[in-house]
Amino acid sequence: MEWIILGIIALGVLSGIGIYNRLVRLRQVTNQAWADVDVQLKQRYDLIPNLVETVKGYAGHERQTLEAVVNARNAAVQASGPAATAQAEGVLTGALRQLFALTESYPDLKANTNFLQLQSELSDIENKIAAARRFFNNAVSEFNAAIETFPAVLFASALGFRSREFFEVPETERATVETAPQVKF
Hints:
By secondary structure, the protein is mainly alpha-helical. It has helices at residues 2-59, 63-78, 82-103, 107-111, 113-148, 171-178. It starts with a helix and ends in a 7-residue tail after the last helix.
């Protein structure tokens, strides 16, 4: 009888260790996924000043649009955490859309090889951000599900595992991202 009780206790301890190790592993995957998103966003932030300077050479009098892009970029750089970053990214995406709409008024700018290269790089980075974001949100989904399922839910909170936020555009910014930019001539 004592061996059965000891076996049950040992099985419980081993299960607890296994669950804890799985939660740690999922947390690390989530942290790595966020770091990947952060790297892609940093590349985007580094590219934007070059893009603004190129546009400024052709459309310097469009100061309001250029300042909106710079301000949105600076706010996005300073944002921390998925929710704040997603909100700042929504604003930045809207400002960039306005910038690209503005370029329609300047055929010389649209033909500029430097601008075309920057635009191509930005498009490539946007695709990488989307992929990194999907991977991050998947990692968050797996992590959150793991800490909310039985038996991990019994002790995950006590061990410091908290659910993570997804990286998604807030509803308040969704209209900006989904609205077509206005082209002014």
